[in-house]
Amino acid sequence: MVDAIEITTKNKVHILEKLLGHISKKGYGLVYTQFRVESENTAFLYVELENVVDIDCLISELRGFSGVMEVVKFFPTDEIWGKRIIIIGTGIQVSQVVLGAITEADRHNIRGERISVDTLPLAGEKKLTEAVRAVGCLPRVGCLVLAGSLMGGSIVDAIDEIKNKYGVKVISLNMVGSVRDHADLVVTDPVQAGVMAVMSIAKTAKFDIDRVDEVL
After folding, report:
1. H or E element: which one contains 142?
2. What is the pTM of this model?
3. How far apart are CA 44 and CA 37, in angstroms?
4. Mapping DSSP to helix (H, G, I), strand (E, B) and coil, where does residue 156 land?
5. Within 13 Å, how many C-alpha atoms sit on residue 159's CB side?
6. 158 φ/ψ sector (left φ>0, alpha ψ -120 to 50, else beta)
7. How far apart are CA 148 and CA 9, in angstroms?
8. Is-contact 158 184, C-beta < 8 A?
9. Which phi-psi region, left, alpha or beta, contains residue 153 (left: φ > 0; alpha: ψ -120 to 50)?
């Protein structure tokens, strides 16, 4: 079971180290954390933990730290935003992939899934390479869809990296370039690519992307 809390603190030196250090000493597993500075005086620390014996006790202890203004219990992001699909590429192709992905995600989310869709219209080999590689830094990503008319070069190295290191499935549109040879699945129709992306990560779908070895 995963518990989530958000801590509002004063923006002080070493406050992050002290709070996470206390959590670590209690033997709780740190699943995910995010720290953001709201202003010169206020910062927020969101933490997801596992193996917590008494979350209310932990919240009470953290409230006692100097600089802590409030600690509240949250639902884990996996329960709210769920698994993520990232769609990167040129605007018109991205919009069509999104159409398929959102339509299919809605069908599965009604049945209890939580699947969210993120997009980034982008062009240029360097920018695309950076964006694809950064997908590995994002939490809960299950599938990346590359939607464009021409992709290759250093982008394929980034694709191989997120596939091998982070286990992200990659779907490519049937475009010019070497990206097709490194994707897990190549789909000609962009709307269908969005549908396939959702089906590849949905528990309520009977679809295995690793068993498909042809261009659809």
Report:
1. strand 141-147
2. 0.87
3. 6
4. helix
5. 24
6. alpha
7. 43
8. no
9. left
